[in-house]
Amino acid sequence: QVQLVESGGGLVQAGGSLRLSCAASVRTFRTYNMAWFRQPPGKEREFVAQITSTGYTYYATSVKGRFTISRDNAKNTVYLQMNSLKPEDTAVYLCNAVPISTTIDYWGQGTQVTVSS
Fold first, then answer.
1. CA 5 centroid distance within chain
2. Maximum distance among all alpha carbons in the chain?
3. Cα 89 to Cα 68: distance, rounded to the nearest angstrom
4. Measured between alpha carbons, how far is 33 from 54 in angstroms, rounded to an integer?
5. Which of 30, 34, 35, 41 has its CA 20 to 30 A from that of 23?
6. CA nearest 81: which of 71, 72, 69?
7. Would you say 24 and 78 are in contact if contact means Cβ atoms under 8 Å apart?
8. How far is CA 40 from CA 3, 60, 79, 81, 114, in A?
9. What is the model's pLDDT at position 110?
10. Rounded distance, CA 72 to CA 16, Å?
11. Which H, E and C letters describe the chain, residue by residue?
């Protein structure tokens, strides 16, 4: 069964940085498209970044140039490096995994990121 565990969240001042990790317990990690979503307080869940099974990356306009998604297939882990953080980045960040050629979504429990002014 797929299990995703996020870590690395916390409280940081505006302009600071955090690095989130998502450890995936999956059979064949290389065959999964991985992504980060976030849900700000009182708002809907929104897309942040994706890295496909082949290593292509995509970013939401709001984070492009500030966030970097990467993956370490040897460790079954996806990362989200967040720089130049803004208060509007405050949210629960969730790891998402989709096996290629499917529409099945697996989700982690989320990790809280709070950016103060």
1. 11
2. 42
3. 14
4. 8
5. 41
6. 69
7. yes
8. 23, 15, 19, 18, 10
9. 97
10. 24
11. CCEEEEECCEEEECCCCEEEEEEEECCCHHHEEEEEEEECCCCCCEEEEEECCCCCEEECCCCCCCEEEEEECCCCEEEEEECCCCHHHCEEEEEEEEECCCCCCEECCCEEEEEEC
Q: How high is the mean pLDDT of the chain?
A: 97
pLDDT tens digit sequence for 29-56: 999 999 999 999 999 999 999 999 999 9
CA distance 101 to 84: 35
Phi, psi of 88 (to 5 degrees): -70, -10
